[in-house]
Write a structure and sequence with these properties.
Elements lengths: L1 E6 L3 H13 L5 E7 L3 E3 L18 E3 H4 L5 E4 L2 E5 L4 E4 L4 E3 L2 E4 L3 E3 L16 E2 L4 H13 L3 E7 L9 H15 L6 E6 L9 H13 L2 E4 L4 E5 L4 E4 L4 E3 L2 E5 L2 E3 L1 H5 L24 E3 L12 H19 L12 E8 L2 E7 L8 E5 L3 E5 L4 H18 L20
């Protein structure tokens, strides 16, 4: 019997396993999914936790509940990958051979790489919200915060869900407005990018929205160090910003097992063909989700679009045919903007977010590059879609390619 091994039972790996187990003959293929623990975290919900919009228990489920029982789910630490012998070595010394390997090992935050960040003040006056522990601590900090300067700082790119820090700024504005404290709270968005976002048109729209909400942008701010005692962050160009409360989006790296196995670049990201999703240096290996080094967003919707492409290409590889499907970098993201509204953006490698209607041309119901209440409800509905459709590897009525129908050039 031949074997496909998937490393990582996060969003990408779970969805791919559930999809493949329905497609491949059970008497010919064994599908093994490996991860270190039995906790699946709904990462998009971490954004809402600091504002009391979700409960802690809404964000986690047992992996065994999310994975098709026909998949051989093994919960054990992974020591390393040995591509020369086509095997994965587990923490207990056992090894698992494979015919095809899918690396869906995700990404991790490494706040200790920013000097001083995890020193004095960590989780009291300086927080992250990309971990469950960090989001809980930030919730407590927001609940007791009565005024002063909040700095939201992105340490460096790439990060998971590039729009999440923007959303935190918008939600903080709404949160403190509702508490009657907004005139006492200064919000500063310190980013290594020139503006709020990577794509020019979208960045301009978001910049105007920040201006209307009195959210300041410190662009090209590449943080060098954090002084927790003085409550100050400094950039490599000499600029310094003082804070009362720091919300950090820490440095992101690829998984430790990728680094230990020598499969990634300096950041632990796996060199990946941007269209076929093959690992460029590894035979019979594909890469999915956040683990790639691709210039696309590290987000759940992207993982879903990639899974569409990878499914077609893996079946072709099994049949020893040329890989037919091509990933175009398609990303689709709701941006929660507070006060019961959200914005939606749709873009890919070559085309930036454009105004228009989505997914039905001219009809919507969602509006691109514009705040609407329907977009907000679409954002909230994603939680149900995540648990019941995306993770289950079911089809969504969306093409994995970015389509121009319903969009207007600007």
């Amino acid at each position: 019997m031949k074997r496909i091994v998937i490393l990582g039972a996060g969003t990408a790996g779970t969805a791919m396993a559930n999809r493949l187990v329905r497609l491949l003959p059970e008497d010919e293929w064994q599908l093994i999914l490996l991860d270190r623990d039995d906790v699946h975290l709904y990462q998009p919900g971490l954004l809402f936790l600091p504002f009391g919009m979700y409960r802690d228990d809404e964000l986690t489920r047992s992996r065994t509940r999310t994975v098709d029982p026909r998949v051989d789910l093994r919960l054990t630490p992974i020591e390393r990958v040995e591509p020369d012998t086509r095997r994965v070595v587990l923490g207990n010394g056992e090894s698992v051979g494979y015919d095809f390997l899918i690396l869906a090992t995700g990404s991790r935050v490494v706040p200790e790489l920013t000097p001083g960040l995890t020193g004095e003040g960590w989780r009291t006056s300086a927080h992250d919200f990309y971990t469950l522990e960090g989001a809980r601590a930030l919730r407590r900090a927001f609940e007791t915060f009565t005024g002063g300067r909040i700095i939201i700082n992105i340490a460096e790119m790439p990060i998971k869900c590039p729009v999440a820090p923007l959303e935190l700024a918008f939600l903080a504005d709404a949160y403190f407005t509702q508490r009657g404290l907004r005139d006492k709270v200064e919000i500063v968005y310190a980013t290594p990018l020139e503006g709020p976002f990577t794509k020019p048109v979208c960045s301009s729209v978001l910049g105007n929205m920040f201006g209307n909400r009195n959210i300041q942008v410190a662009g090209d701010f590449n943080v060098a160090a954090v002084d927790g005692r003085a409550r100050r962050i400094s950039a490599y160009d000499g600029r310094e910003l003082e804070y009362d409360l720091l919300v950090s989006v820490p440095v992101h790296n690829g998984a430790e097992v990728i680094t230990k196995s020598g499969l990634g670049d300096a950041g632990g990201w796996i060199p990946t063909d941007k269209h076929t999703l093959t690992a460029t240096r590894l035979p019979n290996t594909f890469v999915l989700g956040d683990a790639t080094d691709l210039p696309s967003s590290k987000a759940g919707a992207v993982a879903h679009f990639q899974a569409d492409v990878l499914t077609e290409n893996l079946i072709a590889a099994i049949d020893d045919r040329p890989l037919p499907a091509r990933f175009d970098g398609h990303a689709n993201c709701f941006i929660e903007t507070g006060h019961g509204k959200a914005m939606l953006i749709d873009f890919n490698y070559d085309t930036q977010p454009l105004p228009g209607k989505f997914p039905l041309p001219g009809l919507g119901p969602f509006t691109l590059l514009e705040e609407t209440a329907i977009n907000h409800w679409g954002k909230l509905a994603f939680k149900w879609i995540y648990w019941n459709v995306l993770l289950a590897g079911k089809e969504l009525p969306l093409d994995h390619r970015m389509l121009m129908a319903g969009k207007r050039a600007v």
